[in-house]
Write a structure and sequence with these properties.
The protein has a two-stranded antiparallel ribbon with strand order 1-2. Helix 1 (32-38) crosses helix 2 and helix 6 crosses helix 7. The protein is of the alpha+beta class. The protein has helices at residues 32-38, 43-49, 106-113, 118-122, 129-134, 170-177, 181-187; strands at residues 19-25, 63-67, 97-99, 147-149, 156-165, 198-208. It has 7 helices and 6 strands, in the order E-H-H-E-E-H-H-H-E-E-H-H-E.
């Protein structure tokens, strides 16, 4: 299958960074930071080499490749920002359905995944039955696998295509193309990381229409 390669505006996307011959199997209570420290590389070095969707979310027993050397050892831009001061009440274009991951809360989904207010989700009249019935507080942990509707701005759209990742995180792409990491995660349900390449769906050029 052919995947359109967008011209990357992000300096870290798809860099040719070598892996060592070492792999590591994630254990209970591991974090990307503790694993990176064990091998004297940066947390984002490790996350990008393994093309993680969210560097803060690791599955026990998944296997990670270890970089041959530290590339950006003090860089943390591969992580999403939890913007509790978000003011937007909708996202441009879509997708507008987000599937809940382990540990997700309304606050995390709104402020970190989509950079919108928590109230915009909780007051959304077209919200899913699960959220409407639960009526959660913003810090209540939600049920994995259920869905949340994300309000999309009226008269807005994104361009959608495929993009083959070999190095980087979903946040790196979101930063480079001015979309939210939640939009990327919604398009690629269930994706967490890959050992080599990740042909994923992406959105870009999200804007209000004339």
């Amino acid at each position: 299958m052919f995947y359109l390669a967008l011209a990357s505006t992000g300096s870290v996307l798809n860099l040719d960074v070598a892996a060592s011959n070492i792999t590591y199997t994630v254990q209970n209570n591991d974090t990307i930071h503790t694993i990176a420290a064990k091998y004297n590389v940066g947390a984002c070095d490790l996350a990008r080499l393994n093309v993680l969707s969210d560097p803060n979310f690791l599955y026990t027993n998944e296997t990670l490749r270890i970089p041959a050397r530290a590339t950006f050892p003090n860089d943390y831009t591969c992580f999403s920002t939890n913007n509790t001061n978000a003011t937007a009440d909708c996202i441009y274009g879509g997708p507008h359905v987000y599937t809940i991951l382990p540990g997700d809360t309304i606050q995390k989904i709104a402020n970190e995944r989509f950079n919108i207010t928590t109230d915009s989700i909780l007051s959304f009249t077209a919200q899913t039955g699960y959220i409407a019935a639960l009526n959660p507080g913003i810090h209540d942990v939600l049920q994995t696998g259920e869905t949340v509707k994300i309000p999309a701005c009226s008269n807005s759209a994104c361009t959608m295509t495929d993009f083959t990742f070999t190095y980087g995180t979903l946040q790196d792409f979101a930063t480079a193309y001015n979309v939210t990491v939640g939009q990327m995660m919604s398009l690629n349900l269930g994706y967490n990381h890959t050992a080599y390449i990740a042909p994923l769906g992406v959105v870009y050029d999200c804007t209000l229409l004339d």
